Amino acid sequence: MLFNSYVFLLIFLPVCVLGFRAAMRQGGVQLSLSWLLACSLFFYGWWDPRYVLLLLASIGANFAAAQLLRRASGRPRKALLAAGIAGNLGLLGYFKYAGFFARTLAPVLGTDGSGWDLVLPLGISFFTFQQIAYLVDTSRGNTPARGLFPYALFITFFPHLIAGPITHHGELMPQLDARTRERARAADFSLGLAILVVGLVKKVILADSVARYASPTFAAAELGASPSFAEGWLAALAYTLQLYFDFSGYSDMAIGLALLFGVRLPANFDSPYKAVSIVDFWRRWHITLSRFLREYLYIPLGGNRRGPVRRYAYLMITMLLGGLWHGAGWTFVAWGGLHGAMLVTNHAWRALRHRLGVAAAAPGSWRLAAGRALTFVCVVAAWVLFRSHSWDGATRILGAMAGQNGFELADSFETSRALRLIAPLLLVVWLAPNTQQIFASGKPVLDPQPAPARLLLWRPTPLGASGLAIVAVLVLLGISSASEFLYYQF
Amino acid sequence: MAGPARRHARVFIAVLVALLAVLGACNFLLDPFLAYRVVAIDALRPYRDKLHSRIAKAEILGHEDCQVVILGTSRAQIALDPDHPAWGAPACNLALTGMGVPELLGVLERVIREPEVRELVIALDIHSSAGDAALHEDFARSRFDDRLQLVEYHGGLLFGEDATRASLGLVSDFFRGRVSPYSERGFTNPALRGRPADRESFLWALERTIGALRAPLRERSGDETALLSRLAADIRTAQARGIAVTLVILPVHAIFLETLQRFGKWPNRERARETFMRSLTPEGGEPLVPVWDFTSYLGPAAEGVPAAGAAREMRWHWDAVHVKRELGDEVIAQIRSAAMPSHLSPGVRLTLDSLGAESERLHQEREDYLRAHGAELALIDEASGDGGLLDKDFATGEKQP
User: Fold this and answer.
1) How many helices and strands, by DSSP H and E, does chain B display?
2) Whole-prediction pTM
């Protein structure tokens, strides 16, 4: 069930919210949370009921493993943790990467590599990571004992189940445990509605509109066409915007939906295209994934504790695996590798400046602008790898952007139409405050809270509510041609 | 809830519900796709402009008494009138613009499940080897598609942009007196929009045809032989359910046939025809169903194209690929053996054994045609120039943005 579907917005969500509130009034916190768990399982089962069993089996096995980890110590604990992680990764690998490895190894094994492309259970990449984090922290003694119910709800809570944000058990489980849950704030409901509508606008109106200028060029490049300079750049910029509005729109919706039930999720985006460096970009883009990779992969590998060379190697490994997490394909690995290389360069540059004693305390506005422009260009170029299905398709687009086919600025009707949409959207991502800043007065996400916007700061007024309702109707109008979220495939 | 927040939520929900109620009620009552048919607003009947869409055609199947169903592309949609008396039973024209074999299979498999359907007439576009056409994007939004989710479908019809635009268009056409060329039984009559059958229309269709023949990256959606085998299997299923099936290759203008020759596509046409006949013919037997071929270089097919700026319009053709209803009526009369004066060359009942003789006949007719009308072939050069394709609606002749 997509967030941007009629069945979700007009049937599932109203029923779920009304049932939750009724259960709260009639039976208290525990009944309302039980209702929420039932709704979440129904939400997941709508796609394919058989996979609910897989999800429940995964939850049960991980919860049992966590219980055993609490009691174990020393070597058995390590072995148990390794088995738990291997089990989770095995499940993910079987569904997500079996086809990829079968195709890759086919020439070596003398097979045709077919027959391994399985249906990927929705959200498996996300709930697998959350459960691995839970096991790791339990083995470290960092998880208080809680029952199966809050654990199951922590994993299945429908706003974040399919595509994140990747929540930490320490953030979410206290909010979903009847013993520790705080009373829902009165203003959360209206705040959640407003953020949900903003997320829908980003997805249905902005992302889907700009997508039509990206997809044809990428598809043509896959088929062997050589785009012009303008076509290459417009397609890359269009995809850059599509991906941001699509995924940040989804994250906004998740945050808004969670607030309807008095639950706060962590922020997942912080105006990433305003980043002044690649290091800064990864603090702003898919924040919860960066956090997971840092805490459960990069730091356990060794982090920055073993000297710069190893540190850069760990960084590369982390980003390569991060790329592979996004999809079973070499273009994703290349995308991760490219970002890893850029991060290494960024860190090395900083270290060099520090050693030379030229690291300014606060960079001037020109340096910031130059850093922002360079970062943006690097990110756009890397998205070409991310979007392309093949290496040939990616190199054709990148070649066109580099002027391989000349520097023709085609003045076609389609080009000017694309520019009329892309240019204002670029201004939005560069200059406008983000959702968390606009709604900062309501504290919509878990700490740290962003600085509130100077302009466009949200206030719950009747006029604003009417305007928001009109916008919501416009979104519902656009839903008839709505598409899937890009991150659903991951 | 605290004061302002509670008021905000209440106002939001109240305004949202009110707006959705108004929007849904308007789309429900105006019903541009005739999906609900709860309130019949007779005054709007002549102005319904979406009755050719996949959504509406699937609804026709659900709501109308369709004992005879006509399937095919825009050629059948424009040529074969479901109100022709020779059908002898209520007929529906469910032909779809730009329908390829994969979509034909989707529609066919849906149609043969309808209990009231007694007869199927399938007009095949064997000329353009439509086996490689992908599903139209609107197919998945219609009831023809078995995977359709009904909540999304009705949500779209009540609150969606397309339905709302269609409702507004219906009201606008009503006030402007702009009659729709589409009937409630799925037939398209371009004459209602005053579309001229002149040289420009002829060239426009030829340009589009040439554009399609030239397209190097045309998406292939499956092996043609496998698709045609599936079609034969569906025809067997239909017969097993007591549905009579007739296959028709509709007439086209001779210049279109020459365009296929000019662009080297004639062998494709011959191959597709043979593949199809093989899939329909059991070993050493007759075809499972009658297959009528009206392809010819003679008679109406050789109709002269008006000169540039001439007031005269073509009698039998809307353009190079679409014949008028008058010619369609003669096709219907022939396949139903109805008594009717005919200008059309007699249609041929194809068999696997007669294909060679038919090819030879066409070859001979072509020689005669080229001798008598060779000068008209300059139209192909004119249409294949760099004038660019005019993107126009085939039924109305209007340029699309």
Assistant:
1) 13, 6
2) 0.86
